[in-house]
Prior knowledge:
The structure holds two protein chains of two kinds. Chain A has helices spanning 3-28, 36-61, 89-100, 117-125, 144-155, 174-178, 212-222, 237-273, 279-300, 305-342, 357-363, 375-383, 405-415, 436-456, 467-479, 482-499, 509-530, 536-544, 546-562, 587-608, 614-639, and strands at residues 78-84, 107-112, 129-131, 160-165, 169-170, 187-191, 195-196, 233-236, 419-422, 428-430. Chain A is an alpha/beta fold. In chain A, strands 3-2-1-4-8-6-9 form a seven-stranded mixed sheet, sandwiched between helices. Chain A has a three-stranded mixed sheet with strand order 5-10-7. In chain A, helix 9 runs antiparallel to helix 10. Chain B is globular and about 30 Å long. The mean pLDDT of chain B is 87. In chain B, strand 1 and strand 2 form a beta hairpin. The longest helix of chain B has 16 residues, at 24-39. Helices cover 37% and strands 26% of the residues of chain B. In chain B, strands 1, 2, 3, 4 and 5 form a five-stranded mixed sheet that branches. Chain B has one domain: 2-Layer Sandwich (Transcription Regulator spoIIAA). Classes of the chains: A alpha/beta, B alpha/beta. At the A-B interface, helix 10 and helix 11 of A face helix 1 and helix 2 of B.
Amino acid sequence: MNLRLLVVRVIVVLTALLxxxxxxxxxxxxxxxxxxxxAVPLVVAETYSLVDSLLFGLTMWRLRDRDTxxxxxxxLTVDVFIATYNEPIDLVMRTARAAQAITxxxxxxxxxxxxxxxxxxxxxxxxxxxxxxxxxxAGMPRHAKAGNLNNALLATEGEFFLIxxxxxxxxPDILDKxxxxxxxxxxxxxxxxxxxxxxxxxxxxxxxxxxxxxxxxQGKDGxxxxxxxxxxxxxxxxxxxxxxxxxxxxxxELGVHRALRTARAVLRQARRSVARDDVVVREALxxxxxxVTEARRAISGGxxxxxxxxxxxxxxxxxxxxxxxxxxxxxxxDLAAIAELEGIGADPDLVFxxxxxxxxxxxxxxxWSPLGAVETVQALVEAVDVDRSGEAQAIMPLATISVTEDxxxxxxxxxxxxxxxxxxxxxxxxxxxxxxxxxxxxxxxxAQGTMQVMFRENPLVQRGLTIAQxxxxxxTMWSYLAGFAALVYIAAPVVYLTLGILPVSALxxxxxxxxxxxxxxxxxLFWVVADGRPTWxxxxxxxxxxPVWIASVTxxxxxxxxxRSLDFAVTPKTRREPxxxxxxxxxxxxxxxxxxxxxxxxxxxxxxxxQANVPGTAFNLVWVAFDLLIFSVIIQAARYRxxxxxxxxxxxxxxxxxxxxxxxxxxxxxxxxxxxAS
Amino acid sequence: xxxxxxxxxxDGVGVVTPEGRLNMVSARRLREVLVGLVERGTSRIxxxxxETTFVDSSGLGALIGGLKTARQAGGDLRVARVSPAVLSxxxxxxxxxxxxxxxxxxxxxDD
Lengths: 678, 111
């Protein structure tokens, strides 16, 4: 163990001890129960922050600075994927040319989800391959970027692939520096940083994530939990395919079990909707019910799903054939009656095609089946099969449960026992949003994606992950709950300064003795692990974007549990107005700041008129000042007018597209800027 | 659920327009509608399949059943505006030779 890690661990232990000591004392001794409505939220928020701090400490415990990997073996086959949807052709081509110029032998593909002829022409004119969705995707769920990549994985064949967003320009040695990690046969994914070249040093929008693409990823790496962040990562195809197949099996099992479980209710419902005297249909439904029972018995008896579903489908096909045969028989006798009327019975040409096997089979085919009349039953029958008919591809290696496909995919890879690595060296130069609105939309998407994963596949209960891996994933999710704590941290000083109500039983010496050392070591930990990297922006945004974090939790909750669209309650899409600062986008923050200022004035007045004591007011004024300092970043961000390159750096293209649905700004991932910053 | 438009034209021809899918469930209704028309004296019937997206074997059965009833009452049943998808079911069973599809509802009884 090197000296730095030793120091980090000492501080981590100290932080944990002092933190637990403080929060335990707060719960046990110092909650002002008379003012429970503010006292309880405050102590809960403090507990939240302690857990955040402990998770951060755990992450730092195994801070891993990897050695340079060996040079890659020659002869590996590598594909470079550039994912695009609607970005300007020039922007994509700039990345594509750089991708083509990567030194390690590879094939470059533009994955054009927009299926644009001009994109295709531009790429192919320079010998770059162009791919778009196959016909299988027509009418199927598209799953955004994950779908685009899943489509490409079935159309290409390299052993490894590098994923690049359309605006991430790779350096020529990106593969030479990363392929070496795959000498480890269990290595599935190597992530490199996302770094943005169109960001000024003071980074008003908090675009760079120096803490995340650095100590946090290195810490996660130490627990074999380095995250896949959607772009600038190299992945082993075999790992993804294994993931795709195992997910396929899992989901088919789930689908069939669920269908068989609900089958009785569905059939009962269907039976009720059919007229009492419609004996034919009722008998058909009864036959299917019998087959469902049979299938359930076979599965619980350990029969293979494939065989059970095959048998089930065969039996249902029989039911369909019987229905059709009965229809045809009636038809035949009707025709005979007609023929008698007309006297055409002797003309063999006019005799209705005999119920030959071919006709019967065709009319009994799934698509024409009389069973289709009872749609719920049709859906039930289709669900008891292994073809995953609701998706374009049976194999979907990239997770589609979240708008940020990367995190869920990576978690599943880890669950299968694969390893990941974080390579701490910038090997691609990207472009960040240059206006507040796009930035806010992007952060909201990342946060929503993370919350979707938390609600759908909570890492704490995922089998196959180590305890530490579960906590590493959970830490990122936990950090997005900061919005609720921020509300309390604003409210508490306001309540004291205006109403004189203290959520803590007393601002005693003991309070300060327990709190201050904790705060100091916490900041010290940051300072040590950051090792000169700027962390203040991240700390500011983790609180200052509280409306975004709260919206992400509520919308993702509504999406996962109520089937609502994620865009429910999102900031209205107004076009960016270059004339003035975008105050309308940060109204909640401005209100919060106004409230804090008014409270501060009120506090001073109350002291001057003898209604409040000096130490309590002073403490809360410092608190208000800290809050205002945190929120000041919002003012800067709203006033930011875009990147003005320093002389000499003039090859950065303008990317002022106002389309917020672009995957470049919404489907992309990473920059978990809030993490470890509170 | 499939809807049926039913009207009787001035020339005494009944026009039945099934909308949507003509299948196991809706075929019963069609049969009732057709029988009802014949019973009330309208034995010349055009079934307008222009709004019908799908016909299964039960649907075919209902049409032929209607044809039989109409013929027995001295009338006839004709089908008009058959979509390619539905026509393929007719062709599969050679029914198109007996129920020759007519291009329009108005001209269905012209020959």
